[in-house]
Write a structure and sequence with these properties.
single chain; about 270 residues; mainly alpha; 14 helices; globular
Length: about 270
Protein backbone atom coordinates (compact mmCIF):
# COMPACT_ATOMS: atom_id res chain seq x y z
CA UNK A 1 0.00 0.00 0.00
CA UNK A 2 1.29 3.43 -0.92
CA UNK A 3 2.24 5.61 2.02
CA UNK A 4 0.06 8.68 2.50
CA UNK A 5 1.58 11.79 4.02
CA UNK A 6 -0.78 14.07 5.90
CA UNK A 7 0.18 17.68 6.59
CA UNK A 8 -1.55 19.21 9.62
CA UNK A 9 -1.38 22.53 11.38
CA UNK A 10 -0.03 20.92 14.55
CA UNK A 11 3.66 21.43 15.17
CA UNK A 12 5.49 18.13 14.92
CA UNK A 13 8.02 16.93 17.51
CA UNK A 14 11.56 18.19 17.09
CA UNK A 15 12.98 14.74 16.33
CA UNK A 16 10.37 14.24 13.59
CA UNK A 17 11.26 17.63 12.14
CA UNK A 18 14.97 16.81 12.14
CA UNK A 19 14.20 13.47 10.51
CA UNK A 20 12.34 15.26 7.70
CA UNK A 21 15.31 17.54 7.15
CA UNK A 22 17.57 14.50 6.83
CA UNK A 23 15.13 12.78 4.47
CA UNK A 24 15.14 15.89 2.26
CA UNK A 25 18.90 16.45 2.44
CA UNK A 26 19.22 15.97 -1.32
CA UNK A 27 17.25 19.19 -1.75
CA UNK A 28 20.10 21.10 -0.10
CA UNK A 29 22.41 20.09 -2.95
CA UNK A 30 19.67 20.62 -5.56
CA UNK A 31 18.96 24.18 -4.42
CA UNK A 32 22.69 24.93 -4.12
CA UNK A 33 23.29 23.80 -7.70
CA UNK A 34 20.36 25.89 -8.88
CA UNK A 35 21.70 29.00 -7.14
CA UNK A 36 25.19 28.54 -8.54
CA UNK A 37 23.85 28.13 -12.09
CA UNK A 38 21.70 31.24 -11.75
CA UNK A 39 24.51 33.24 -10.16
CA UNK A 40 26.99 32.64 -12.97
CA UNK A 41 24.69 32.06 -15.92
CA UNK A 42 25.46 34.17 -18.98
CA UNK A 43 28.62 35.63 -17.42
CA UNK A 44 31.82 35.69 -19.44
CA UNK A 45 34.19 35.05 -16.52
CA UNK A 46 31.87 32.72 -14.57
CA UNK A 47 33.30 31.69 -11.19
CA UNK A 48 36.39 33.82 -11.87
CA UNK A 49 34.32 36.77 -10.66
CA UNK A 50 34.84 35.29 -7.19
CA UNK A 51 38.57 35.80 -7.61
CA UNK A 52 38.07 39.39 -8.74
CA UNK A 53 35.70 40.33 -5.92
CA UNK A 54 38.22 40.96 -3.10
CA UNK A 55 40.97 42.47 -5.26
CA UNK A 56 39.73 46.11 -5.35
CA UNK A 57 39.36 46.16 -1.55
CA UNK A 58 42.80 44.60 -1.09
CA UNK A 59 44.40 47.21 -3.36
CA UNK A 60 42.66 50.16 -1.67
CA UNK A 61 43.34 49.05 1.88
CA UNK A 62 46.92 48.06 1.09
CA UNK A 63 47.45 51.62 -0.07
CA UNK A 64 45.84 53.28 2.97
CA UNK A 65 46.63 50.84 5.78
CA UNK A 66 49.85 49.35 4.40
CA UNK A 67 51.50 52.36 2.77
CA UNK A 68 50.08 55.52 4.37
CA UNK A 69 49.10 54.47 7.91
CA UNK A 70 51.62 51.61 7.89
CA UNK A 71 49.74 49.27 10.17
CA UNK A 72 52.08 46.87 11.93
CA UNK A 73 51.34 43.31 10.79
CA UNK A 74 54.53 41.80 12.16
CA UNK A 75 56.43 39.65 9.69
CA UNK A 76 53.42 39.27 7.39
CA UNK A 77 53.25 41.32 4.18
CA UNK A 78 50.19 43.52 4.44
CA UNK A 79 48.50 42.28 1.19
CA UNK A 80 48.61 38.69 2.47
CA UNK A 81 47.45 39.79 5.92
CA UNK A 82 44.44 41.64 4.46
CA UNK A 83 43.62 38.97 1.87
CA UNK A 84 43.18 36.22 4.47
CA UNK A 85 40.87 38.47 6.48
CA UNK A 86 38.90 39.52 3.40
CA UNK A 87 38.26 35.96 2.21
CA UNK A 88 36.84 34.97 5.59
CA UNK A 89 34.78 38.14 5.84
CA UNK A 90 33.34 37.73 2.33
CA UNK A 91 32.15 34.22 3.16
CA UNK A 92 30.45 35.55 6.29
CA UNK A 93 28.64 38.37 4.48
CA UNK A 94 27.68 36.19 1.51
CA UNK A 95 26.30 33.62 3.92
CA UNK A 96 24.26 36.04 6.02
CA UNK A 97 22.84 37.89 3.02
CA UNK A 98 22.15 34.67 1.11
CA UNK A 99 20.36 33.02 4.01
CA UNK A 100 18.50 36.22 4.83
CA UNK A 101 17.02 36.39 1.32
CA UNK A 102 16.66 32.64 0.77
CA UNK A 103 12.91 32.47 1.47
CA UNK A 104 12.00 35.50 -0.61
CA UNK A 105 14.10 34.28 -3.54
CA UNK A 106 12.26 30.92 -3.54
CA UNK A 107 8.75 32.10 -2.77
CA UNK A 108 7.42 30.55 -5.99
CA UNK A 109 8.60 27.14 -4.78
CA UNK A 110 7.30 27.55 -1.23
CA UNK A 111 3.77 28.04 -2.53
CA UNK A 112 3.82 24.87 -4.62
CA UNK A 113 5.42 22.07 -2.61
CA UNK A 114 6.00 21.22 1.02
CA UNK A 115 9.41 20.55 2.54
CA UNK A 116 11.18 21.77 5.69
CA UNK A 117 11.85 25.37 4.75
CA UNK A 118 15.12 25.45 6.66
CA UNK A 119 16.47 23.47 3.68
CA UNK A 120 16.73 26.75 1.77
CA UNK A 121 18.99 28.49 4.32
CA UNK A 122 21.08 25.32 4.62
CA UNK A 123 21.66 25.26 0.86
CA UNK A 124 23.28 28.70 1.08
CA UNK A 125 26.07 27.19 3.17
CA UNK A 126 27.10 25.08 0.17
CA UNK A 127 26.80 28.01 -2.24
CA UNK A 128 29.03 30.13 -0.04
CA UNK A 129 31.46 27.24 0.50
CA UNK A 130 31.98 26.90 -3.25
CA UNK A 131 32.74 30.62 -3.48
CA UNK A 132 35.10 30.31 -0.51
CA UNK A 133 37.01 27.40 -2.05
CA UNK A 134 37.40 29.21 -5.37
CA UNK A 135 38.58 32.41 -3.69
CA UNK A 136 40.99 30.32 -1.63
CA UNK A 137 43.04 30.08 -4.81
CA UNK A 138 44.00 33.73 -4.23
CA UNK A 139 45.47 32.82 -0.86
CA UNK A 140 47.48 30.00 -2.42
CA UNK A 141 48.81 32.39 -5.08
CA UNK A 142 49.69 34.95 -2.40
CA UNK A 143 51.43 32.31 -0.28
CA UNK A 144 53.58 31.38 -3.26
CA UNK A 145 54.31 35.03 -4.12
CA UNK A 146 55.41 35.92 -0.60
CA UNK A 147 57.08 32.54 0.00
CA UNK A 148 55.01 31.69 3.06
CA UNK A 149 54.53 28.00 3.83
CA UNK A 150 51.78 26.92 6.29
CA UNK A 151 53.04 24.66 9.08
CA UNK A 152 51.39 22.11 11.38
CA UNK A 153 48.96 24.73 12.70
CA UNK A 154 46.90 24.31 9.54
CA UNK A 155 45.24 21.29 11.19
CA UNK A 156 43.15 23.80 13.18
CA UNK A 157 41.83 25.46 10.02
CA UNK A 158 38.64 23.29 9.82
CA UNK A 159 37.64 24.46 13.31
CA UNK A 160 37.74 28.11 12.28
CA UNK A 161 36.02 27.34 8.99
CA UNK A 162 33.13 25.67 10.86
CA UNK A 163 32.97 28.64 13.22
CA UNK A 164 32.82 30.88 10.15
CA UNK A 165 29.80 28.91 8.95
CA UNK A 166 28.17 28.94 12.38
CA UNK A 167 28.61 32.70 12.75
CA UNK A 168 27.09 33.40 9.34
CA UNK A 169 24.25 30.92 9.73
CA UNK A 170 23.30 32.02 13.25
CA UNK A 171 22.76 35.60 12.07
CA UNK A 172 21.39 34.67 8.66
CA UNK A 173 18.68 32.41 10.09
CA UNK A 174 17.38 35.33 12.16
CA UNK A 175 17.44 37.58 9.10
CA UNK A 176 15.55 34.91 7.16
CA UNK A 177 12.98 34.47 9.96
CA UNK A 178 12.27 38.20 10.15
CA UNK A 179 12.67 39.32 6.53
CA UNK A 180 9.70 37.41 5.11
CA UNK A 181 7.38 39.28 7.49
CA UNK A 182 9.22 42.58 7.87
CA UNK A 183 10.72 43.41 4.48
CA UNK A 184 12.62 46.39 5.91
CA UNK A 185 15.19 43.93 7.26
CA UNK A 186 16.05 43.06 3.67
CA UNK A 187 17.38 46.59 3.21
CA UNK A 188 18.66 47.43 6.70
CA UNK A 189 20.55 44.24 7.52
CA UNK A 190 23.18 44.50 4.71
CA UNK A 191 24.15 48.00 5.89
CA UNK A 192 24.63 46.77 9.45
CA UNK A 193 26.66 43.77 8.28
CA UNK A 194 28.84 45.92 6.01
CA UNK A 195 29.46 48.44 8.79
CA UNK A 196 30.52 45.72 11.21
CA UNK A 197 33.65 45.09 9.12
CA UNK A 198 35.13 48.08 10.92
CA UNK A 199 34.55 46.29 14.23
CA UNK A 200 36.37 43.22 12.95
CA UNK A 201 40.16 42.91 12.42
CA UNK A 202 39.92 42.35 8.68
CA UNK A 203 42.28 45.15 7.61
CA UNK A 204 43.98 45.74 10.93
CA UNK A 205 45.29 43.44 13.69
CA UNK A 206 43.23 43.04 16.86
CA UNK A 207 46.22 44.25 18.89
CA UNK A 208 45.90 47.74 17.41
CA UNK A 209 42.97 48.49 19.71
CA UNK A 210 43.45 49.87 23.23
CA UNK A 211 42.90 47.35 26.07
CA UNK A 212 39.44 48.61 27.05
CA UNK A 213 38.16 48.18 23.48
CA UNK A 214 39.91 44.89 22.81
CA UNK A 215 37.71 43.30 25.48
CA UNK A 216 34.69 44.05 23.30
CA UNK A 217 36.48 42.39 20.39
CA UNK A 218 36.40 39.11 22.30
CA UNK A 219 32.61 39.03 21.84
CA UNK A 220 32.98 39.18 18.05
CA UNK A 221 33.07 35.62 16.64
CA UNK A 222 34.31 36.82 13.24
CA UNK A 223 37.30 38.45 14.95
CA UNK A 224 38.13 35.02 16.33
CA UNK A 225 37.63 33.40 12.92
CA UNK A 226 39.87 35.83 11.05
CA UNK A 227 42.58 35.78 13.69
CA UNK A 228 42.35 31.98 13.54
CA UNK A 229 42.68 31.92 9.75
CA UNK A 230 45.84 34.00 9.98
CA UNK A 231 47.22 31.76 12.71
CA UNK A 232 46.61 28.54 10.79
CA UNK A 233 47.35 29.67 7.23
CA UNK A 234 50.12 32.26 7.40
CA UNK A 235 51.74 31.64 10.78
CA UNK A 236 50.45 34.74 12.55
CA UNK A 237 50.34 34.81 16.35
CA UNK A 238 47.87 32.60 18.18
CA UNK A 239 44.48 34.24 18.93
CA UNK A 240 43.89 35.16 22.55
CA UNK A 241 42.09 32.43 24.56
CA UNK A 242 39.57 35.11 25.53
CA UNK A 243 38.19 34.88 21.99
CA UNK A 244 36.60 31.58 23.03
CA UNK A 245 34.01 33.74 24.78
CA UNK A 246 32.64 34.69 21.35
CA UNK A 247 31.46 31.12 20.78
CA UNK A 248 28.83 31.50 23.52
CA UNK A 249 26.70 34.23 21.85
CA UNK A 250 27.01 32.42 18.52
CA UNK A 251 25.63 29.19 19.97
CA UNK A 252 22.82 31.10 21.69
CA UNK A 253 21.89 32.87 18.44
CA UNK A 254 22.12 29.59 16.51
CA UNK A 255 19.84 27.55 18.80
CA UNK A 256 17.39 30.39 19.39
CA UNK A 257 17.32 31.21 15.68
CA UNK A 258 16.51 27.64 14.67
CA UNK A 259 13.76 27.40 17.30
CA UNK A 260 12.24 30.70 16.21
CA UNK A 261 12.47 29.75 12.53
CA UNK A 262 10.63 26.52 13.24
CA UNK A 263 7.97 28.39 15.21
CA UNK A 264 7.18 30.80 12.36
CA UNK A 265 7.81 28.37 9.51
CA UNK A 266 4.13 27.58 9.00
CA UNK A 267 3.34 31.29 8.61
CA UNK A 268 5.85 31.90 5.82
CA UNK A 269 3.51 31.01 2.95
CA UNK A 270 0.94 33.51 4.29
CA UNK A 271 3.34 36.44 4.05
CA UNK A 272 5.27 35.62 0.88
Amino acid sequence: MEEVKVITADREPLLTYLRKIWQNRSLVITFAKRDLKIKYAQTFFGVFWILLQPLPSIIIFTFFFGRIIKVDTGKLPYPLFALVGMIGWNYFTNLTNGIGNSLIESQHILKKIYFPKVILPLSKILVGAVDFLVSFALIIIALIMFKVVPDWKIIFFPFFFLLNILAGFSIGIWMSSLTFRYRDFQHIAPYIINFSIWLTPVFYPATILPPHLSKLMYLNPMAFVIEGYRYTLVGDKMPSPYFLISIIPVLILFVAGLLYFRRVEDEIADYI
